[in-house]
Amino acid sequence: MSLQLDNLSVRRGGQTVLDGLSLPPLPAGSLTALIGPNGAGKSTLIHALAGLVPFQGEASLQGVSLRQLPPAERARRVGLLPQALPQGSGLSVYEFLLGGLRAAGASAREAEQASEAMLAELGLLPLALKRMDTLSGGQRQMVALAQALARRPGLLLLDEPNSALDLHWQLTMLDAVQRVVAERQAVALLALHDLNLALRSCARVIVLAGGRCRADGPPQQVLSPSLLAEVYGVLGRIEHSSRGEALFVLERLPS
Ligand SMILES: Nc1ncnc2c1ncn2[C@@H]1O[C@H](COP(=O)(O)OP(=O)(O)OP(=O)(O)O)[C@@H](O)[C@H]1O
């Protein structure tokens, strides 16, 4: 499985938001971070790949054009965690997961098994019978991610999956994403602002700015002080802890 983007462009509101994006294939089995400043086009790329925003050019998963997939097949193959989370509803968490799986074509029995297994794997069983409209923002994000993961799609598109999560849940969720992606040999693209999570969990980082790819490669190579200054307008650097972990240090604005 791999995801190929070739000359992908998106116009929104009369502006070119993604400008002829071509990338070496995104591999299966590991996480790719999509980083870049606010307004760079990260969510737009994720929405285009999920079929929510029209695009020019080509995007194909294992040689199959995403644009040509019928909606039901696309729902089966592509799992999306949007930045704007589902609003509360009267559904229970368990029913919400079941609904996502059924919409992606699972039988009732498959949906029940996959929902229970994913809630158990993520430690979310205590929330199973809670109504969606009684959850906190972070709990809703966990449940929406659980729904995307439970379907075990070939392409996972996660838009800031950790933005509402506390430290424990950030690691729980990213580790679960890594497990599912490795087991399923799925392609995973995660829009992230937290460079330390990109360093910890992602094999590759794509830096978007102004709708174009400014850098692409292993995080420790890509996240150089000069790139951070150019793309974000900040002074920052990567340091290594005494245990060898790469850590991003945000210093200050340039004087
Ligand atoms: N529905 C829309 N209509 C018109 N323009 C839009 C729409 N959604 C986004 N844009 C524009 O597209 C550009 C890219 O937005 P996008 O949300 O993809 O950026 P992003 O990199 O995800 O930003 P952030 O980090 O702030 O979430 C921005 O200039 C934004 O104003």
Short description:
With 255 residues, the chain is an alpha/beta fold.
The amount of helix comes to: 25-40%
Backbone CA Rg: 18 Å
| CATH-derived architecture | 3-Layer(aba) Sandwich
User: So, the CATH homologous superfamily?
Assistant: P-loop containing nucleotide triphosphate hydrolases
- CATH class division: Alpha Beta
What is the domain tally?
Answer: 1
The run of helices and strands is: EEEHEEHEHHHEHEHEEHHEE
Give the distance, in angstroms, between the N- and C-terminal Cα atoms: 46 Å
- In CATH terms, what is the fold-level topology? Rossmann fold
Beta-strand content bin: 25-35%
State the secondary-structure class: alpha/beta
Gross geometry: globular
Based on DSSP secondary structure assignment, what is the total number of beta strands? Answer: 12
Could you describe the largest sheet, including whether it forms a barrel? Answer: 6 strands, mixed
Low-confidence parts: none
What oligomeric arrangement do these chains adopt? single chain
Protein name: Iron complex transport system ATP-binding protein
Domain ABC transporter: 3-235
InterPro entries: AAA+_ATPase, ABC_transporter-like_ATP-bd, ABC_transporter-like_CS, P-loop_NTPase
Organism: Chitinimonas taiwanensis DSM 18899
